[in-house]
Structure prediction request, 287 residues.
Amino acid sequence: MAGIPGPGLRRTRFAPSPTGPLHLGHAFSALLAYGLAEPGQFLLRIEDIDQSRCRPEWEQEIFGDLAWLGLEWPLPVMRQSERLPAYAAALSRLAERGLIYPCCCRRADIRAALVAPQEGADPPVGPDGLIYPGTCRGRLLADAGPDEAIRLNAGAAFDLLGIGQVSFDDEALPGDHRLGRTSFLARVGDVVLSRRGMGTSYHLAVVVDDAAQGITVVPRGVDLFESTYIHVLLQALLRLPRPIYHHHQLIRDTSGKRLAKRDDARALRRYREDGATPATVRQLLGL
Ligand code: GLU
Prediction:
């Protein structure tokens, strides 16, 4: 486990999932993380928990693109698919405190449970989609069927911590970033900490790994802003240090749409093939 960097030294990371080509938006995030690590260290982490979507060739392309941009990082690179025991240990700690439960609901069940009582109104949506209505909340882990999801009992988590709110510091968006218990339950709810057949979820893995790597500043797109409340709640429950956050703007295409992995036209590979230099890319990104 990496230690916390010395006073004044920062440690940042870029944590892509090898599910497609890196595009200009990723280049922005990676270059920003690299710059924010001054003075300090920049790490690369491969977020490959969803093995059905990750491919070794995308991982190789990520290494190639980042090296082409001029970034350097220490080896070996942390790969989340190799960290399942660490996620299982974190789940056990939460289980010991009665904070997680198994969930067998499919998306259609959740939708049906939410839509029925309030016909006409749109059901509430959080960072992970529909806010879970709590159907399985009374179930015990001991009764979990094989291959079920595991959810955080967010209400119980707030009660146990005895805190009225979760909050974080953001160096890019200064202000008062807090969410109280009631708003958290209404806007986020009982998030999935272990997806079916995966042994973890994005939220649990990112929290456990940022702590294991001693990350002090987390640069990420502003689209993850609401997820950060989940992460700081998990840090409090697992007694992990809380990094500073840096939510950055998203890179959009000319029509204002956020770039997606399927947007092959904006793939860094394309720019490289067309003879662009890293300096051109920086210029395009306003860096
Ligand atoms: N793998 C995540 C992504 O690419 C990491 C982002 C984060 O947690 O900051 O969106």
Notes: The pocket of glutamic acid is lined by residues 15-17, 47, 206, 218, 220, 224 (CB under 6 Å). The chain is about 35% helix and 15% strand.
